[in-house]
Design brief:
globular, 6 helices, three-stranded parallel beta sheet, three-stranded antiparallel beta sheet, alpha/beta
Length: about 220
């Protein structure tokens, strides 16, 4: 199993004890694996940790952690003391197929399932998705007019309407807000908020690590 990269641990050190909320287009489940409070997370584009039926009329998602564990054991991965899986020394023993009884199916109709990822209009926004969306909206309302940092990390130009543009707008509307952008090659902001913006081009992981280490010093 893939363990969270150090940037998640460093970022968590920065927000621990603070009033924060994470909105992310990442779907890799790493915020939760790094110990972030699930009630302060909003995965807008889905989550590899969830299945959904291929029938989009079934508006539910299903946690797939138990299935992943069984599937990795069946393929020959070795479970280590910390619960993570690692490939065996002899990788030739790994199996590329699953036994039929481990092929995942929808628990409601027995049909096929797929990952809960926003790739087309079949993406399921279930009750959990809407609850997370509501918590994020409530959090933003509570911060109106307050000193708040809108920290954008690694957002590109593919889906700017989800995080980048709203952060710009909310910073513009709140004179007590600051916008910060960490990006390897796309750190910029509108001119009208540049006096309350921090744009850093570089490796976001390195910048966050330096900030976390400086906080601990």
């Amino acid at each position: 199993m893939i363990t969270p990269t150090p940037v998640y641990d460093d970022l968590k050190r920065l927000v621990d004890g603070k009033n924060y909320f994470v909105i992310t287009t990442n779907v890799d489940h790493q915020f939760q694996r790094a110990g972030f409070d699930k009630s302060r997370l909003f995965y807008t584009q889905g989550d590899y940790g969830l299945f959904q039926s291929v029938d989009p009329s079934i508006k539910l998602t299903f946690d797939n952690e138990a299935w992943v564990m069984r599937a990795m054991e069946a393929q020959g991965f070795v479970k280590e003391a910390d619960g993570a899986f690692a490939p065996p020394e002899d990788k030739s023993v790994l199996k590329t197929e699953l036994p039929p009884e481990l092929i995942p199916v929808c628990p409601l109709d027995g049909g096929e399932v797929t990952m809960n990822l926003r790739s087309d209009d079949s993406f399921v926004e279930d009750e959990g998705w809407h609850e997370a969306s509501g918590r994020y909206a409530d959090f933003l309302r509570e911060q109106e007019g307050r000193h708040v940092l809108f920290l954008e990390i690694g957002v590109g130009s593919n889906t700017p309407v989800i995080i980048k543009y709203p952060f710009w707008q909310m910073t513009d509307e709140n004179p007590n807000a600051v916008y910060a952008c960490l990006n390897y090659s796309e750190a910029f902001c509108p001119r009208r908020i540049e006096h309350r913006s921090i744009c850093i081009e570089g490796d976001s992981g390195e910048v966050i690590r330096e900030l976390a280490n400086g906080m601990d010093a």
